[in-house]
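To close the section, here is one more complete example, presented without commentary so you can practise reading it yourself. The ligand is iron/sulfur cluster.
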Amino acid sequence: MKVTINDVSMDFAPGTSVIDAVFAAGYDVPYFCSQEYMSPIGACRMCLARVGAPRKDREGNWILDEETGEPKIFYFPNMMATCTTQVMEGMVVDTLSDDVKRVQNGMVEFTLINHPLDCPVCDKGGACELQDRAYEYGTGESRFVFDKRHQEKHHPLSEVITLDRERCIHCKRCVRYFEEVPGDGVLDFIERGGHTYIGTLEDGLPSNFTGNITDICPVGALLDTTSRFRGRNWEYDHTRSTGMDDAGGSAIVIDARTGRIERIKGALNPEVNKTWIDDGTRFGHEYVDADDRLRSPLVRKDGELVPATWEEAAQVVRDRLGGLSGKDIGIALRADATLEEGVAAKALAEALGTGQLDHAPRPAASVVPQQAPATLTDLATADAIFVVGDVTEEVPIADLRIKDALKGVTPPEMMAHGVPIADLRLKEHPVFHRERLSVAAPYRVDLMKHAGRTASYPAGGEAALFAALQAIAEAQDAKAEDAEAAAVQLDDGQRAALGMSLADAEALVRGLREADNAVVVIGGFVLATRAAAAAAATFAKAVGAKQLILGPMANSYGLELLHVGPSHDRYAYPGMLEGARALILSNLDPAQDPDVRATLEQKDFLVVHDLFLTETAKIADVVLPARSVYERDGTTVNLEGRFLPLQAAPVDAGESEDFVGVVGALGDALGQRLEGRSVRSARRVLRKRFELDPAELGPSGELYRPKGRPAPRVSIRSDEAVGGNVLVTPSMLRVEYLERNPHLLALSGGSRLRVNPADAAQHGLGDGEAVSLRVGGVVRRARVRLDAGVPAGLMLLPTLPEQPVGLAHADLATLTRDERELEVAG
Amino acid sequence: MSVLDIAKGMGVTLGHLFKRPVTVQYPEQRATVQPRFRGRHHLLRHPDTGLEKCIGCSLCAAACPAYAIYVEADENDPENPTSAGERYAKIYEINMLRCIFCGFCEEACPTGAIVLGHEFELADFRYQDFVYAKPDMLVGTKGSKWQRREAEKKGKDVRLGFEAGPRPELEGVDY
Ligand code: SF4
Ligand code: SF4
Ligand code: SF4
Ligand code: FES
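Output:
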């Protein structure tokens, strides 16, 4: 459709909003309430412009202007809100005339009537849409001599979000966000007119994606409490990077000031997270600036760890490893290491001549599927989704993309100015098509409230679940070929394994099979055994669905793709803790298990590369200070196989180095130029290996699809025994750092042991009690939380890197009330 | 050059020999500074409540062409506030070696908290002694860091080497 904006004529697709046409033509209109990826509602009236269009007469001919002979433009009698107006053929838009300026002026003045003059003390100051628009479109003078509205200031909406009700301009972005994006609907307007304010019904904000409202609030009404008064917007160094708290690979901006990370914000990656990030990613950064962060290498001298230089530490490592044969040395990285660190680790293992190399946690089954995995866009456009696991906790962004699929609006086309500001296909109060989503998990998970079908199968029964579904699929096949074939027959065991009624299961299988674009989302519980993962793959293939595998950590996919793994399953991470005589561990803390600690104490030599003096670091011979995930340059691969760039934020972390730096220093001490001694040299290896250039990745990253099937990997353990009384669950919050994240700690109440009320009564546990317990050997401290959604006889505990998702045995005899009360701030 | 020219020059000299000298015997004698003279900064308080005027907004730091100011803010304890309002400056530092005494900070301040005074005797020995923190600039503090150190050593009051009536902007400052 041809539209003329001031003096520019352009073609637009039908359904485009006028505001997007104006921006695409290179002009500007002020606006407050429209927001990318949310419904336009015309609440703020700031985007007014003069709009007109030609009309047709009864015969269908354009009504012509008598003087010029051109189609006559009929202007709307009033200025139109461009965000809620669609383009029409021949439309004329005027954003520059004095009339338009006058109304825009008036709207700014009207919006400012009740807005306090807080700019000097407001954390939004300098990045505030109202400040900017008032400067660009306002009169610069106030005529308002009356008292302004007074409402509550700095009201804590939750432990991490502060609301200033005086500053709110009632754009409704925050309310719409909760309704439309996570679908939680936890905020609303209360009262009317000038008295309107934002509030919640319950205490706090029961949602996992609350922080995004602080990004989208156009003024300083909703603010991130972790960065409250920490700096002004122009003082921050903004670093765009990738969130490394889960396998989603969300784009983030790290705001740092004078060497400290002050806040994390969401950034745009249309293919991955759009602009949204979860609360774990946003607020879980405070540990980086903890006081007890290691800042220089430590070397054990006369039984004591004493500070040393990198050269000294590297010399010690060289001397002590020199006496060992290569195959006695084990090297392990945590699975959120970058690809560059993976290259460095491989080069080091090769130089030392050891096959004992691994990353952890690494589930029993592969996270790289044999067929190309579904992309997040596939997930967002799927018409049938079957989730097994707790996707909200494992890869929160996948949860939001599933909700996109339930809304049934395809991702918008990019325009000249980026993402459309007002996508008119999105409607307020959207309908979530629940029937498209089925969720199965051993306990009640958050996503179940949006699912049309839910199943609670017995924990550890993932293989049986998929086998039963497979049986249904096969019976349906037989039926399709031969109408006489017997109906689906399942024995009692299979029915129990389904965790839902047979009719539901049949409908689920049929739904997946009939869908044009079906996705099976496979969580950590399935990956815990190879049998289950294989059954899941077979089932997905049988119903023609794509698989999306939720790896346990940010770069699980990439490190597996790169084969940062052992040469034999005996040499995998658990094996090397037993068998190797010397170990180099990066960001891993296995000594939380006292038995493992005893083994490690017997080792000839132990090098730990970590942020803090962990249990393992305390018994190490050499401790090297590590860079946090925010301080590394590198590349990561998310769960869809997308290569994404990491950029180091300017954080003062002493002499910390990433594993690339460790290998560089050790290589110098060994007198070898190892591949991966620097990010650049590691990237040369990656370029050859993957035929893409990690240094040239665009902001959306690059989807990598290997030619041919991925090479088989060496699996982690051969015994597949499942069972236990504790289910280790995925966690959006990184439990290993929770105690150093005061705001998240206050928000979450600490690491939680979720227990069924009946079981709790039996063990004499009360809600909120601090306990410690050995689970699978690891000593865990947690706070008891009574939860009727937990099956009887099972307790739920969030995962640690050393405690992978799945069933584990807890020795209930070790259950003690924790004398050292867990510190909960706030 | 003629003899006459030399005599003319000597005449000027001779004339001045009998005039009152303009030299001030600083530091024994105090210098006079002009009212608009810009010297060391003062951080002011509200005279009625005694609360600090500074709200830690960093606008002075943003305006400073020499990057001489560093501000770190924090939230006021409502029971025992430092400044009026929600926010106060926890750390407020000016590096007097970087400062060019342009007065832009004073101009930028929305609360009139930072005002350039008349003190100019800022010489000192070590770099870090030129970084003035809040206690060095809050009203009531007289003299530069070095002057205060000397005065303490000698057990005397700080003696400023100038005299001037403070400007009205210098609310509460007494020289
Ligand atoms: S709090 Fe912010 S986002 Fe919410 S309605 Fe008010 S101004 Fe808009
Ligand atoms: S007087 Fe000028 S140079 Fe000195 S601190 Fe103020 S703004 Fe900076
Ligand atoms: S002195 Fe003034 S401008 Fe500087 S931080 Fe304080 S209130 Fe803001
Ligand atoms: S009315 Fe708010 S953007 Fe159009």
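Once you have examined the tokens, check your reading against these statements. The mean pLDDT of chain A is 93. The two ends of chain A are 57 Å apart (CA to CA).
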